[in-house]
Amino acid sequence: MGGLCSRWRRGPSASLDSRNLRNAVSDDLGHSHGALRPSPTTYFEDEKVEIPITADDESFSFRKLWAFTGPGFLMSIAYLDPGNIESDLQSGAVAQYRLLWVLLLSTVLGLMMQRLAARLGVVTGMHLAQLCYKHYPRVPRILLWVMVEIAIIGSDMQEVIGTAIAINLLSNKMIPLWGGVIITIADTFSFLTLDRYGLRKLEAFFGLLITVMAVSFGYEYIVVAPDQGELVEGMFLPWCSGCDKKALLQAVGIVGAIIMPHNLYLHSALVKSRVVNRHHRREVREANKYYFIETCVALFVSFLINVFVTSVFAHGLFGVTNGEARSNCIARNISADLFDNIFPNNTEPVDASLYTGGVFLGCQFGAIAMYIWAIGILAAGQSSTMTGTYAGQFVMEGFLNLTWVRWKRVFLTRSIAIIPCFLIAMLKSIDDLSGMNDLLNAIMSLQLPFALLPAITFSASPAIMGEFRITRILSTLLSISVVGVNIYFVVEYVHAKLPGHWLVMSGVWMFSVLYVIFCLYLTFHMLVAFGMSCCGQIPLCGTGVLLHYDEDSEEYRRLLPDASIAYGSRNPEEAHVSLQTDPFYEECEEINFLSAVNSHDFHEESAYKWASRNLERNPLTMCDSDDDSDDMTRMFWSGSTRPFLISFDH
């Protein structure tokens, strides 16, 4: 309290505008008990984008939409990483246009999940990893961190693979795959220098990379000219006539490739880059509205790009054999070094991958098509690398309350990702390297519950989100559908790919049991957040978990940081306390805070001692306060996730 008191004790001549005052309060809250103080170097924490004020705040404003534009497009890059691009082309090669409806449904599910993440960041002022740090015990929190880090490293490996393949194609194989893997180290660190140019320029650069992908894959779409009738039918007819088990597994794999677990942690942190007064209900609603519109636009763009890729290979590769593809390459006088090892002279269907897809386009439509394809893959790999870097830093700082310099974080993650990719590129074939994407998609599908379940838990908790919490039905359907589909994909992949040796199966079963137990624990947390107090009767863990989401519990009040501002009452010992439970009390900033700055009767320390003692002893009660009464003085008690306004009647 002392640090804050010294800041406010300025006397009647003090002058602070409302925005500076709000930022000062936010800074001091970082020092309070139980609160996380974010690093000032993390994603332009000290360079937030101002939101313009319009004449009619209730109407739609393109100026405000532009100010909020950025986080959604950065998030959408995860829907366009090399793993997604390979899943798209495999979908087209295996089932033609018949799985486009799965792509559409997956994107809609992703939109719903990203909305949860964005609302968490806007309403609470904390990103998902920070909320996990506050509400989960140490051991589950560390396990969550490990699982999310595995997902980030898996995504980074896909970016390494995509970039290496793109460099190999662009150089006509003059740069070997292992050389492309090494180059990814240098280009990653070079892109980190973009930080120095500011937040908006960095967001514009990501927009440029998305544009490069749209132009590259859009060019392929125009050149190939797929059947528009079959495309529309495949997109809106939820059926897959004549599909075999391989097509079914591919359909489930689309969901696993589209919905990335670490992307929820990333999006919940990116939305904090705008100046939003969380204590004003109108500003919070406005931020949620514009962020949702931006997310819809960004994911629509990513969906179109994914449709371009799927349609190109649905038209060109579906039903094509290796012998037919080889004949096309020979007819185009393509160098045998490019296709000899990937298109053997047989009647087997082409095994679609990032590399074979590029070579096929070159053989079918000329070298320019192959080079443009490689440019699109390169843009996908580079953009995903940058967003993965930010996601990793947010996750580490949130779960461990640990700040690392970004280049050290990148060096560690990229080193772990490069080692297996480099070894496979050196010792194995291009098919083995490109085929790793399937394994990595399965690994990231396994990690999805460790992002989705915490996000739903906090989004459904009235103690955390207040009126902005989601309904139980929506959250339950979302969690069951997404997690169920992904687990099915992993089970089928393990059954098809792993050897049936008893040692391997024993390890798989042991991991599966531990995995299910941890998922059940997270589900238990979610049910408690839903308000199922009966879960508190479960031995060992029930009561402890219940206290984290019960507003009337001593444990929940213990999680609140110390009182941040108290003023005005000459005799707080005799004051009557009333609690305004609305976390978006409209008058806090304009009246209460500014009058605090200019108050001659400033007795915050005695009021703080009174409030601390009484709030620990007495249950919190709800009652109305007189907003316009001159004989009412107030203290602003800021909680970890929601503020309380305590009024002292004279």
Give an overview of the whole structure.
- By secondary structure, the protein is mainly α.
- It has 2 domains: 2-35 and 561-649, no CATH class; 79-447, Amino acid/polyamine transporter I (Up-down Bundle), CATH 1.20.1740.
- Helices cover 66% and strands 3% of the residues.
- The protein has a 4-stranded antiparallel beta sheet with strand order 1-3-4-2.
- A hairpin with a 4-residue loop joins strand 3 (632-638) and strand 4.
- Helix 9 runs antiparallel to helix 19 (406-427).
- The longest helix has 36 residues, at 281-316.
- Residues 1-41, 540-544 and 551-650 have low confidence and may be disordered.
CATH class of the largest domain: Mainly Alpha
Low-pLDDT runs: 1-41, 540-544, 551-650
Give the strand content: under 5%
Secondary structure tally, helices: 28
Helix/strand/pairing class, anyone?
mainly alpha
Widest sheet: strand order? 1-3-4-2
Number of strands: 4
CATH topology name of the largest domain? Amino acid/polyamine transporter I
Major pleated sheet: 4 strands, antiparallel
Count of domain modules:
2
Shape: globular
Q: What is the CATH architecture descriptor of the largest domain?
A: Up-down Bundle
Helix amount, in percent?
55-70%
Q: Measure the end-to-end span.
A: 23 Å
Mean pLDDT, all residues: 74
> Which value, in Å, is the CA radius of gyration?
27 Å
Membrane topology: Multi-pass membrane protein
Protein name: Protein Malvolio
Pfam family, one: Nramp
Transmembrane segments: 100-122, 175-192, 204-222, 247-270, 291-318, 354-380, 411-430, 442-461, 473-491, 503-524
